[in-house]
Automatic annotation (TrEMBL):
GO terms for biological process: cell division; kinetochore assembly; mitotic sister chromatid segregation. Keywords: Cell cycle, Cell division, Centromere, Chromosome, Coiled coil, Kinetochore, Mitosis. Pfam families: Mis12. One of its GO terms (cellular component) is nucleus. It is found in: Chromosome, Centromere, Kinetochore. This is Protein MIS12 homolog. Belongs to the mis12 family. Residues 123-150 form a coiled coil. It comes from the Eukaryota. It comes from Prunus persica (Peach). The lineage of its organism: Eukaryota, Viridiplantae, Streptophyta, Embryophyta, Tracheophyta.
Length: 243
């Protein structure tokens, strides 16, 4: 970097990259020294060798560790320094310093800006058209939502009207009451038929006991409602057919 265009640029700005790198090196060396000294104190206290001959052995061992650590750090810092010179402190080719009456920001804008009035006009037209399309799309969405709400409301009203009409034409409550009444009448008549059948059965049994020579075919004993009167059975059938 020495004697290069980058160095001239940094010198003109009163910036010294190498000074920054050296400060980093010194900071790392101080950290290594502090770490080794702290380790030496902790080891001496733990081993209880303060003021003995073993203190020198401990110092020698720590120095060996320090040299190994320092060697590895120096190699990595050397690569880091080279990387800084090649990338961080290397100005782009063709870079020009701003004049005394221009600021660095204005110079950078003048170098990188594309001055094309026709292109700017086309971009403005596209922006305006995009804004109009967005506004029209928003208006269409609002209108569509309004129509959907109106359609849903009309559907609900129509459904309610149909339900009300059906309820008026066919009173479900009256139909239910009529069905309950008919069922009650049927239960009453069937109960009467069963009672009559039981009575006739008991009567026939008594006749059989007291008149053993009576013709069985003349007795009214049967199954189901065979002993019931014809008019009662017909009345039950009429109720069943009507329901």
């Amino acid at each position: 970097m020495e004697g290069s265009e980058s160095e001239a640029v940094f010198d003109s700005l009163n910036v010294n990259p190498q000074l920054f790198i050296n400060e980093v090196f010194n900071l790392v060396d101080d950290l290594v020294d502090d770490a080794c000294n702290h380790f030496h104190q902790q080891a001496s206290t733990s081993l209880k060798i303060e003021g003995t001959d073993r203190t020198q052995d401990l110092s020698k061992g720590i120095n060996v560790i320090r040299k190994k650590v320092q060697s590895d750090i120096d190699k990595r810092l050397a690569m880091w320094e080279q990387h800084c010179h090649n990338h961080f402190f290397q100005v782009p080719e063709g870079f020009m310093l701003p004049k005394s009456d221009e600021s660095p920001v204005e110079t950078s804008i003048c170098q990188n800006a594309i001055c094309d009035p026709d292109l700017d006009a086309q971009l403005d037209l596209l922006r305006n058209n995009l804004t109009k399309v967005g506004q029209e799309s928003a208006a269409l969405n609002r209108e569509l939502q309004s129509l959907e709400r109106q359609s849903a409301s009309n559907d609900h009203i129509s459904a309610l009207d149909e339900i009300s009409l059906l309820y008026d034409q066919n009173s479900y409550h009256e139909m239910f009451q009529e069905m309950m009444k008919t069922a009650s009448e049927l239960r009453t008549k069937i109960g009467k038929l069963k009672t009559r059948k039981i009575e006739e059965t008991e009567h026939n049994k008594a006749d059989k006991i007291y008149n053993p020579h009576r013709d069985p075919s003349m007795m009214g004993i049967g199954k189901g409602f065979s002993g019931a009167k014809l008019e009662d059975l017909q009345e039950v059938l009429v109720h069943l057919k009507n329901r």
